[in-house]
Amino acid sequence: MTGSAFVISRIVDAPRELVWRLHTQADHLKNWMGPKGFPMTHCTMDLRVGGVFHYCLQIPGGGGDMWGKWTFRRIEAPHLLECIVSFSDADQGVTRHPMGPDWPLQTLGITTFEETPDGKTRITVNWSAYEPTPAEQACFDGGHDSMEQGWGGTFEQFLDYLARVK
To answer: CA torsion sign, 39 to 93 to 3 to 98?
Structure first.
């Protein structure tokens, strides 16, 4: 069964090595990662194959906490991060999406960092359902507009943070 991948890309005015650090170090990630308006209250990073980026986002309006984790499958610094992405609990257990019971239990996230000839960096996020059921694949395929909004806000926060640290 194949569905459609979600792909979003932005070119940022910064060298790839800096963009890589901001994507792979907890001290930076906690300042920008996540949809706009969802502050990160917990962030740990074990950047190695088999390691985990574990985080907690606070849902606006007193909606509680939303935990997530990325388990790294492939790391090619400063070019590529590949990981299995899932919702989580405080103990890094895999959980269902708190508001979407048909959301895939796991997704495959591949982020690439490409130097442009003018010294900028193209960041591309390619996300697909990982070993989904038919219902999970349909939910994922139907969620692209929501993912566009969430990742769009995340990129906005990244650009704001990048401007502060450059």
So the answer is: negative
Tens digit of each residue's pLDDT (9 = 90 or more) over 81-129: 999 999 999 999 999 998 889 999 999 999 999 999 999 999 999 999 9
β-pair type (94-95, 64-76): unpaired
Query: Which CATH architecture does the domain made up of 6-147 adopt?
Result: 2-Layer Sandwich (3.30)
Question: Helix, strand, coil shares of the chain as percentages rounded to 5?
Answer: 30, 40, 35
Nearest to residue 16, comparing CAs of 156, 162, 164?
A: 162
User: DSSP E strands: which ranges in the chain?
Assistant: 6-12, 40-45, 52-59, 64-76, 80-88, 94-95, 107-115, 121-129
76 forms beta bridges with 80
How far apart are alpha carbons 81 and 50 in whole angstroms?
A: 12
Q: Which of 165, 166, 153 is nearest to 10 (CA)?
A: 153
Instruction: Tell which residue, 54, 63, 64, 116, has the closest CA to residue 85.
Output: 54
Q: Enumerate the domain spans of the chain.
A: 6-147
User: pTM here?
Assistant: 0.93
Contacts of 144-153 with C-beta under 8 Å, sequence gap 24+, read: 144/4, 144/6, 147/6, 147/8, 148/6, 148/8, 149/35, 150/35, 151/8, 151/125, 152/8, 153/35, 153/36, 153/37
